[in-house]
Design a protein that fits this description.
The protein is mostly helical. 51% of the residues lie in helices and 0% in strands. The longest helix has 16 residues. It starts with 15 loop residues before the first helix and ends in an 8-residue tail after the last helix.
Length: 87
Amino acid sequence: MSIEWCRLWHDMPTDPKFRAVAKRANRPTAEVLAVFTAMMANASANEKERGRLRNWSHEDMAVALDMEPKDAEAIYAAMQGKLLDGD
């Protein structure tokens, strides 16, 4: 069995950028971290353009993370300019 990897930084869970995004989106920091981690895994798995989101769906990810789609979309929007630049 082959395991594919993406890398996270050691202080990621306590990085203040995630709390800033949480405040912007009016969502818990834990949800922001969950969405960001899912985005990292998605972008890492993109074989054609590694590092960019591929076939990302706010609705699908919200269901996977037991969230409302509008909340996942709000987090994505709040990440722009702070953690994301487009996709």
